[in-house]
């Protein structure tokens, strides 16, 4: 049981956190033929766009209502209207996903009312879905923006269905948390397909930001889940949500359509995957395929081999709540200790983390707590801290801008867990200290304590 | 906000800005506040511009007052380099929350400044205003003043919230901030007749260090580079320079001109991109310094350095020129680079099929025309789709642009080179030019292009399909021509061991009226090897009746029947 601490300092140094609206925009990017739109000043969009470009190494569709100083004071109706009309005529999307920002929330723009007015005035926009999510920058964080957006999509776009209506026995829904990469989603799809199950993913980044070469250049999102598919989510037989953040969306989907759900707080580690596979057996009525049995055996063997290197290691993790939970719990099960845990926003999972305290803070806090740790795990911004601390650094989460393949990093399922386990174990092995004849020598009397401490290291 | 709007007016009245001078007074008053098109706009905001302009000052704490989006989403994304302090790479933000929005964020800002000074002890703190605190009325000027007095350190307000305008306006507002609060507040330890300022150079990828050795050799001291690899003290005492070179005309002309007005520092606009431009810039620096009292022999030494370095650079480029001559380049960039890079590429023998002028001034465009001719293909605003088509149709061999449009080229499977701020290579001065040519050569001749352009094997016709098609063609030909069919049938080998054709066997059967496979074998040698064709012989005997025999066969069949 961990105590959750909110720091008393006023200045955030080296932010770990990213804003809600960009979490929201990323969720919209998992929908087919969508144009995400920020209701805010131009920079709000530009910063998010550059961040995603650097992370995914892909072209990113993201637009702005380009609020000027005057427009901000007077209210943004005209800007929202003009933006929607411009996007509709230029990019011809099926859906425009609108997220608010700090500026327009401070002013108090009522975008839901704006949309009503715009709908009345522009019947030509009827075929286009407009989904608005309130995501002020000064509240919550990235994963909250993502989660709120998915919930809103469910509430607004899923067709209601009666409890007794016929369902597709082989189709399940997946609601992935913001911390799942396109690679993770593909892995889950692979597992379900091994059981003969089909899967609809809301939102589906696996077809949109997984780094493939498209046949044509499109100004909107590529791939992703279509509006028709979202509407039909109620016809699936079960909903699987990954990450506590997705509980609200799963509940919303159940109350609208009666589809039962299971929330997995993580899919990294042996135990949660055993539960996941059991669920697949139940839904599909099929035995566990040989492939999956083999993968499980491999993970168990990997854990056995790796535990020698994990035992007693101190790990410092900086990540959003659900990712922090998955990483700390998985490494705990291998014998490591989460010696420093820093996160961005509150979550029911934080208390359950096996460490003394979890801090809602920044990378400065993490750096201060990570001294003496054997590994630092956080997004790319942690590299400076790791350099200064002289400890190995594993990049995970968004943004990961100084390495390729961020979208394919896979840590779910037996296979993903096995990969992660090997990778981290190898980092520990590579960083092992070779003893020298001086390693255990007695400190000389004249020498000061500081030098002795260094040689004893 | 009144101070911001008056500053903006001031910036728009900038007499050094050619764009403004061309306007009527009424137009000038309106400034550049052209409303951006909602839903069709791209690019950064004024805050972004201000931060970019000042952040390369390396030993200062840059504190962003606002919600997490402004710093949390954007920090640590520029490749300026520092020869000393790395404090500029630390992201500081007040990360204001809902309570601050309701009750005001001034207290949090003041406490943040205090924490930074206690923990990091920088020579100064720069405070950046953003949209939300500007809206709720946080007076950062007052907070900075109070904090400065209390802690005995300069705390500089940079009043440039995002919604006041685009990135470029932010650059200028940042310039105003240091003009008002920093420049001229300290004195240099000593001065020389060879002191210059470089304005609008950000030392991205360490480019300044490609040129600095040349100046060092000439004895010219960079008193302050505003703001690449600068320290607070350099900027504060930069008013003692004898001359200034302005590198990026769009971003910091107000600094150059106002320093000329206030401190009588003459300036010129030049570029260190391209061999000829670098030489011109060096000459101009020396000329201005001599005008301000430096000994005239400086020019001789300058010319000697130019002659030596040019020769060295040309020699280094020579081996590449052959490979690059005639290659077509599409250049999508902004501002001063639109012409300074054009010159550089032409020196390498390359041909420009187009350059973007979206962010260029009138003079920039004139320069392009000078270099590329009157009918230069200037692209005002090219949509990604057009860029894609242009590249795909192979009208260009390579695209040089900023990181955002790179994927257009990469998805079209065309070479691309980053020449914007996020790039990792330095291209300034003589050595930088050689570097650029090397990089272009590397990109153009990388074998990867051949690899990625290959179609997947399953997209091409498989050998089976090719064979199937050939077989079908032959079958059709045989069906249309019985004589050909007969020839074909007769030329099929039956016994591979003894090389016996079917025609030979048929003839033997007819001639000798054979009825058993053994007899055929005896007469023709077929089947006397491995014996695996005996079955075929029987088959031939069985089917003899069903043929449509030629006249000679008719006769023998009649004999057989008899």
From TrEMBL, chain A:
InterPro entries referenced in this protein's UniProt entry, alphabetically: ChlB/BchB/BchZ (IPR050152), Nase/OxRdtase_comp1 (IPR000510), Nase_comp1_CS (IPR000318), Nase_Mo-Fe_CF (IPR005975)
Coiled coil: none
GO molecular function term, any single one: nitrogenase activity
Cross-referenced Pfam families: Oxidored_nitro
GO BP term, pick one: protein-containing complex assembly
Sequence segments annotated as region (Disordered): 436-457
UniProt keyword terms in alphabetical order: Nitrogen fixation
Metabolic or biological pathway, per its Swiss-Prot or TrEMBL entry: Cofactor biosynthesis; Fe-Mo cofactor biosynthesis
Nitrogenase/oxidoreductase component domain location: 19-428
NCBIfam families, sorted: nifN (TIGR01285)
Family per similarity comment: Belongs to the NifD/NifK/NifE/NifN family.
PANTHER family: LIGHT-INDEPENDENT PROTOCHLOROPHYLLIDE REDUCTASE SUBUNIT B
Function noted in UniProt: This protein may play a role in the biosynthesis of the prosthetic group of nitrogenase (FeMo cofactor).
Protein name, UniProt field: Nitrogenase iron-molybdenum cofactor biosynthesis protein NifN
UniProtKB/TrEMBL annotation, chain B:
Pathway: Cofactor biosynthesis; Fe-Mo cofactor biosynthesis
Short name of one Pfam family: Oxidored_nitro
Ranges where the BFD-like [2Fe-2S]-binding domain occurs: 494-542
Domain Nitrogenase/oxidoreductase component: 45-444
GO biological process entries: protein-containing complex assembly
Coiled-coil regions, chain positions: none
InterPro entries: BFD-like_2Fe2S-bd_dom, BFD-like_2Fe2S-bd_dom_sf, Nase/OxRdtase_comp1, Nase_comp1_CS, NifE, NifE-like
Region named Disordered: 1-35
Gene3D superfamilies: BFD-like [2Fe-2S]-binding domain, Nitrogenase MoFe cofactor biosynthesis protein NifE, C-terminal, Nitrogenase molybdenum iron protein domain
Keywords on record: Nitrogen fixation
One Gene Ontology MF term: nitrogenase activity
Entry's transmembrane regions: none
Function per UniProt: This protein may play a role in the biosynthesis of the prosthetic group of nitrogenase (FeMo cofactor).
PANTHER family assigned: NITROGENASE IRON-MOLYBDENUM COFACTOR BIOSYNTHESIS PROTEIN NIFE
Entry similarity comment: Belongs to the NifD/NifK/NifE/NifN family.
Protein name: Nitrogenase iron-molybdenum cofactor biosynthesis protein NifE
Annotated organism of origin: Methylocaldum marinum
């Amino acid at each position: 049981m961990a105590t959750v601490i909110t720091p008393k300092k006023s200045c955030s140094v080296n932010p770990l956190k990213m804003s809600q609206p960009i979490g929201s925009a990323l969720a919209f990017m998992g929908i087919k033929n969508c144009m995400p739109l920020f209701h805010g000043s131009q920079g709000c969009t530009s910063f998010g766009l550059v961040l995603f470009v650097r992370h995914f190494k892909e072209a990113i569709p993201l637009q702005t209502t380009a609020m000027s100083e005057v427009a901000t004071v007077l209210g943004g109706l005209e800007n929202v209207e003009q933006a929607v009309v411009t996007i509709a005529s230029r990019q011809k999307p099926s859906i425009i996903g609108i997220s608010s920002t700090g500026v327009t929330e401070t002013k108090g723009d009522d975008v839901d009312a704006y949309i009503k007015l715009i709908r009345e005035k522009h019947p030509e926009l009827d075929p286009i879905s407009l989904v608005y999510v309130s995501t002020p920058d000064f509240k919550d964080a990235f994963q909250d923006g993502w989660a709120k957006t998915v919930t809103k999509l469910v509430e607004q776009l899923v067709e209601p269905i009666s409890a007794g209506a016929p369902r597709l026995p082989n189709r399940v829904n997946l609601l992935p948390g913001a911390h799942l990469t396109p690679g993770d989603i593909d892995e889950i799809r692979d597992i379900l397909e091994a059981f003969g199950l089909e899967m609809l993913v809301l939102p589906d980044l696996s077809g949109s930001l997984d780094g493939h070469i498209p046949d044509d250049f499109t100004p909107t999102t590529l791939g992703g889940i279509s509006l028709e598919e979202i509407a039909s989510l109620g016809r699936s037989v079960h909903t699987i949500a990954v990450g506590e953040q997705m509980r609200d969306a799963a509940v919303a989907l159940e109350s609208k359509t009666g589809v039962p759900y299971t929330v997995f707080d993580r899919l990294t580690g042996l135990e949660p995957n055993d539960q996941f596979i059991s669920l697949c057996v139940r839904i599909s009525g099929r035995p566990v395929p040989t492939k999956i049995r083999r993968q499980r055996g491999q993970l168990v063997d990997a854990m056995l081999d790796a535990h020698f290197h994990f035992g007693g290691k101190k790990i410092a993790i900086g990540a959003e709540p659900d990712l922090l939970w998955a990483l700390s719990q998985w490494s705990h099960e291998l014998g490591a200790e989460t010696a420093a845990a820093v996160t961005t926003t509150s979550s029911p999972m934080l208390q359950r983390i096996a460490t003394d305290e979890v801090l809602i803070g920044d990378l400065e806090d993490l750096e201060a707590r990570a001294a003496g740790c054997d590994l630092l795990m956080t997004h790319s911004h942690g590299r400076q801290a790791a350099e200064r601390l002289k400890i190995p650094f594993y990049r995970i989460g968004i943004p990961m801008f100084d390495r390729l393949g961020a979208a394919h990093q896979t840590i779910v399922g037996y296979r993903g867990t096995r990969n992660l386990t090997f990778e981290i174990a190898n980092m520990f092995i590579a960083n092992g200290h070779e003893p020298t004849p001086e390693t255990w020598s007695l400190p000389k009397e004249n020498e000061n304590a500081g030098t002795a401490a260094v040689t004893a290291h | 906000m009144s101070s911001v709007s008056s500053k903006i007016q001031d910036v728009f009245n900038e007499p050094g800005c050619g764009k403004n001078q061309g306007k009527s007074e009424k137009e000038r008053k309106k400034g550049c506040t052209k409303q951006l098109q909602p839903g069709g706009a791209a690019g950064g905001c004024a805050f972004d511009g201000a931060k970019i302009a000042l952040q390369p000052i390396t030993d200062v704490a840059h504190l962003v007052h606002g919600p997490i989006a402004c710093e949390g989403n954007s920090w640590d994304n520029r490749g300026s380099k520092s020869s000393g302090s790395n404090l500029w790479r630390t992201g500081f933000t007040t990360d204001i929350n809902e309570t601050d929005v309701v009750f005001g964020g001034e207290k949090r800002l003041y406490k943040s400044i205090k924490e930074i000074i206690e923990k990091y002890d920088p020579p100064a703190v720069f405070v950046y205003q953003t949209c939300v605190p500007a809206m709720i009325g946080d007076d950062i000027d007052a907070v900075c003043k109070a904090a400065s007095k209390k802690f005995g350190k300069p705390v500089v307000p940079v009043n440039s919230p995002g919604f006041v305008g685009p990135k470029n306006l932010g650059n200028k507002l940042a310039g105003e901030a240091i003009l008002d609060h920093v420049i001229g507040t300290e004195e240099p330890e000593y001065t020389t007749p060879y002191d210059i300022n470089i304005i609008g150079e950000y030392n991205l990828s360490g480019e300044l260090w490609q040129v600095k050795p040349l100046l060092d050799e000439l004895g010219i001291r960079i008193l302050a580079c505003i703001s690449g690899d600068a320290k607070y003290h350099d900027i504060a005492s930069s008013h003692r320079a004898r001359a200034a070179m302005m590198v990026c005309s769009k971003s910091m002309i107000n600094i150059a001109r106002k320093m000329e007005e206030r401190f009588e520092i003459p300036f010129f606009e030049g570029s260190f991109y391209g061999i000829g431009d670098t030489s011109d810039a060096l000459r101009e620096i020396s000329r201005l310094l001599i005008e301000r009292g430096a000994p005239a022999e400086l020019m001789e030494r300058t010319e000697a350095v130019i002659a030596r370095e040019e020769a060295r650079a040309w020699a280094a480029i020579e081996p590449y020129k052959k490979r690059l001559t005639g290659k077509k380049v599409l250049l999508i960039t902004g501002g001063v680079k639109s012409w300074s890079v054009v010159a550089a590429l032409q020196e390498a023998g390359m041909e420009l099929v187009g350059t973007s002028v979206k962010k260029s001034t009138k003079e920039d465009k004139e320069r392009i025309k000078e270099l590329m001719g009157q009918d230069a293909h200037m692209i005002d605003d090219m949509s990604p789709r057009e860029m894609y088509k242009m590249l795909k149709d192979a009208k260009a061999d390579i695209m040089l642009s900023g990181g955002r449009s790179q994927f257009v080229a990469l998805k079209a499977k065309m070479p691309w080179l980053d020449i914007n701020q996020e790039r990792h290579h330095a291209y300034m001065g003589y050595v930088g030019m050689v570097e650029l040519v090397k990089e272009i050569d590397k990109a153009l001749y990388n074998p990867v292009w051949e690899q990625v352009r290959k179609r997947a094997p399953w997209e091409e016709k498989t050998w089976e399909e090719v064979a199937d098609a050939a077989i079908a063609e032959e079958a059709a030909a045989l069906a249309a021509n019985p004589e050909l069919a007969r020839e074909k049938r007769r030329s099929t080998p039956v016994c591979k061991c003894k090389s016996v054709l079917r025609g030979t066997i048929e003839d033997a059967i007819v001639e000798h009226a054979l009825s058993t496979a053994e007899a055929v074998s005896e007469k023709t040698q077929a089947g006397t090897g491995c014996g695996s064709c005996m079955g075929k012989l029987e088959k031939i005997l069985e089917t003899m009746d069903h043929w449509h025999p030629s006249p000679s066969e008719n006769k023998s069949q009649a004999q057989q029947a008899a």
